[in-house]
Amino acid sequence: MDTRDTDGENQEMWAQLMAPPAAKLIEAQKRAERFAEGKEVHKACKELMQCTVLTRIIYGNQHWRLAEALANLAYGYLTLQGLPCQATHHANSAKYILLSLRGDTPPASSEEKGTVLSIFVTIYYTLGMANLMQKDAKECYCNLQKADKCLEELQELVWKGAANLKVCNKDIIVALGRASLQKNELDLASKYFEKAVDYLISAEGDAAPELIPLYQEIAKIKQMKKIYEKSISYALQAHSVSLALYQKFSPEVGSAALFLGKAYAATGEEKHIEAAEKYFNESLVAYKEALGMDHPQTINALKVFSKWLGLAGKRKQAYKLLKESFKTQQNPCNDFNKQAAERLYIMGCICLAEEKIRGAYQLLSKCVQIQIAIYGSHHKKTKKTQELLDMMDRLPTEQKLTKCLKQDKKATLIFSIPDL
């Protein structure tokens, strides 16, 4: 190795070590932003912690800049790692600093005042979202309203740092909608989501990606209120946006089509059977083409579709779909996992409903073998399948069908009950 290269590396290392804390802080902030954009969550949070340490060294323990660093760290823990306890801890530390500032440390200019208000927005939004994750809708609502109030004050200022604001009106509105949902205030939640939709359309147009989950949230609420036509209408809008943004054979279109199929299926009306089947099939094809038959999302779409087909009286079609899914798998080892067990369980129940008891017994026996290997013999899923097999074993041959169907009607109606 050239000694000049080694000398250059050593000089660079010493330059980094001997750099003043302020220079190190700037570099750490840049790395944190870069790692966050690249979804390198652990590295991003590590750099945010470094920013907090350096800020404390430079400004001390009672300065609004330390509160800013702690708020950014809290927001990082929440949005990057989904850790509400850590987020709450650091957000509360930041809030305490801002609320107990001494006379010599408050913001010196309107620009700094704007920054402090933006920190409060980040703090209260982070606390509110952490509350939401911890199912504390009351505290969530309170903190989000405080965030909204701080944001209103901030918007009255002429603040140059507005472009760097972590939280916008739409974020708070959506969070308030989710908090309302937790409180089971369906009408209020729907209003918030509709308000967020209007905000997004005015800001980004009618093909913004974030419109998809918002339309779907409103569709769910309408479905819960049994306003099925409205639910379908919003689900159709979500599907339309996904087709405008993504390729026909993509996971995003598969997800939107699956949601739309469920919206049609939820009505239980015969006039919607054809549409439900169309979108369930579209979803399965999109997932299969984009991800392959072995992918969990594809298997989930298959299970939803096959169960619905059973409910719609198309059991043979459902059985054929499930059977073919094993043949088209790329990896033979995927015959021995929890997704395979669930498909075998549905196939066994289809056979049971079709009065093919021997086929049902064989499929459920294979299913329970996989479940024992994966979950153990005492798991509730294993026990559920084993109980069904034991019941079939106890019956004399000529009585198997009649008594099995009478004693456990849920087994034949497996399409309408939750998965294993």
Automatic annotation (TrEMBL):
Superkingdom, natural source: Eukaryota
SUPFAM superfamilies linked: TPR-like
InterPro entries: TPR-like_helical_dom_sf (IPR011990), TTC23/TTC23L (IPR042621)
Name the record gives this protein: Tetratricopeptide repeat protein 23-like
Organism: Pantherophis guttatus (Corn snake)
